[in-house]
Amino acid sequence: MTESRQEVFVSVDVETSGPIPGVYSMLSIGACLVDRPETTFTALLQPISDAFDMDALAVTGMSLEELRISGMTPDEAMTGFARWVEASAGPDATPVFVGFNAPFDWSFVNYYFHRFIGSNPFGFTALDIKALYMGATCCDWSNTRSSRIAAHLKPELKGDHDALHDALYQAELFRLIRQITTVVRV
Question: Which residues form the Exonuclease domain (predicted)?
Fold first, then answer.
């Protein structure tokens, strides 16, 4: 039997200017280690286009004009994030991307990693908290909204569309879901 590498779960949240990468911009990234949430990363990014969805910007409260001045270039932000992931996970571990509605956040993070630095330190590992909750509780998909999960699990933190705050909140949800599941090791 081969020994598997330790998995390090990394809660990641992004704020964007719209629904899809490439056309719209990732505006901020927040991340923390699920089991060591004091270990964090955050960055504001310069937009890659002028395209935006009014609702997306209203939710974030961010301005594309301000981010053009104060944000990091995408290659600087993604290089810094990759270094943080690798250093935080350690050389003998596999970092696992964890997100709330992971397909959305993953699409931007994966696109930016490949476009700006050529590779993704997460490889192809992404874990969705909503799907995990659905499997752990046998609920319907409609019951995986954050408000319903929070009503059941009663986390101390709340999401507020600040990428780092949301990553910390998601990490707490992930830990609470793990507490209600029976662990089966294969």
Answer: 8-183
For 33, the enclosing helix (H) or strand (E) is: strand 26-33
What is the pTM (predicted TM-score) of this model? 0.94
Q: Where are the chain's structural domains?
A: 6-180
- Beta bridge partners, 7, equal 94
Strand 40-44 relative to strand 93-99: parallel, antiparallel, unpaired? unpaired
Eight-state DSSP code of residue 183? P
Separation of alpha carbons 3 and 40, rounded Å: 29
Amino acid identity for residue 19 in this structure = P
Q: 53 — alpha (psi -120 to 50), left (phi > 0) or beta?
A: beta
CATH architecture of the region 6-180: 2-Layer Sandwich (3.30)
Catalytic residues: 161
Q: For strand 6-16 and strand 93-99, is the pairing parallel, antiparallel, or unpaired? A: parallel
Tell me: the pLDDT tens digits for 112-167? 999 999 999 999 889 999 999 999 999 999 999 999 999 999 999 999 999 999 99
